From TrEMBL:
<feature type="region of interest" description="Disordered">
    <location>
        <begin position="1"/>
        <end position="34"/>
    </location>
</feature>
<keyword id="KW-0433">Leucine-rich repeat</keyword>
<keyword id="KW-0969">Cilium</keyword>
<feature type="compositionally biased region" description="Acidic residues">
    <location>
        <begin position="1"/>
        <end position="29"/>
    </location>
</feature>
<keyword id="KW-0206">Cytoskeleton</keyword>
<protein>
    <recommendedName>
        <fullName>Leucine-rich repeat-containing protein 23</fullName>
    </recommendedName>
</protein>
<dbReference type="InterPro" id="IPR032675">
    <property type="entry name" value="LRR_dom_sf"/>
</dbReference>
<dbReference type="InterPro" id="IPR050836">
    <property type="entry name" value="SDS22/Internalin_LRR"/>
</dbReference>
<keyword id="KW-0677">Repeat</keyword>
<dbReference type="InterPro" id="IPR001611">
    <property type="entry name" value="Leu-rich_rpt"/>
</dbReference>
<dbReference type="Pfam" id="PF00560">
    <property type="entry name" value="LRR_1"/>
</dbReference>
<keyword id="KW-0175">Coiled coil</keyword>
<keyword id="KW-0966">Cell projection</keyword>
<keyword id="KW-0282">Flagellum</keyword>
<keyword id="KW-0963">Cytoplasm</keyword>
Length: 214
């Protein structure tokens, strides 16, 4: 019986390796290309509005949730979109949205984004990046942005938000992160700052009171 024990241990090693292979296969499946198609786009378009000089019309709202999307390059041509919801997909890149200069509202919750950095959009007022894998707040520079949600990410520092570029920001949602310090937050028009559920190591209450703690 004693001679059988090492054999049992050896048998367990391939099983662990098989589990790792299965995990790798799952990751590969997550990253498998799944571009936005014209069919999915047409299904999600709504809200027909006048554009330009008022003589033309275009759909300005798009909802494409739970589609497994990894590529939204098709949106580069839809410059009249104002409201876009791409939540619960597998997006890692939002650069195709750079040309959507009329965008007012963007929701990309539950994707695979590691950065909130985007091309500056002049009229964008509301963004939700909730439940992604974002680690910092660099590259958020939209001048009319009033409501920003970064709930449920991996942010550890408040550095990166610039009051010189985010002078319209009034609501900032940071719950569910790993924030260790509020140093660097200097947003004079901020009215609501949500920090419930973050790690409170090193939080400076004086800093928070100077901004707004709710």
């Amino acid at each position: 019986m004693e001679g059988e024990e090492p054999g049992g241990d050896e048998d367990s090693l391939p099983e662990e390796g098989e589990e790792e292979e299965e995990e790798e296969e799952e990751e590969e499946q997550v990253l498998a290309p799944c571009p936005l198609t014209e069919e999915v786009l047409k299904e999600g378009l709504s809200l027909l509005c006048k554009t330009g000089n008022g003589l033309a019309h275009a759909y300005v709202k798009l909802e494409a949730k739970y589609k497994g999307l990894t590529d939204i390059s098709l949106l580069e041509c839809f410059i009249h979109l104002r409201y876009v919801d791409l939540s619960e997909n597998k997006l890692q890149d939002l650069s195709p949205l750079s040309g959507l200069t009329h965008l007012l509202w963007l929701k990309v919750d539950g994707n695979l984004l590691t950065s909130a950095c985007m091309q500056e959009l002049p009229y964008l007022q509301i963004i939700s990046f909730a439940h992604n894998h974002i680690k910092d707040m660099e590259g958020i520079t939209h001048p009319r942005l009033a409501n920003l949600s970064l709930k449920g990410n991996k942010i550890q520092t408040a550095l990166g938000l610039s009051h010189g570029q985010l002078f319209s920001l009034q609501i900032l949602e940071l719950r569910g992160n790993m924030l260790e310090s509020t140093a660097g937050l200097n947003l004079p028009k901020l009215k609501n700052l949500y920090l419930d559920g973050v790690q409170d190591k090193g939080l400076n209450l004086k800093e928070l009171n100077q901004i707004c703690m709710t």
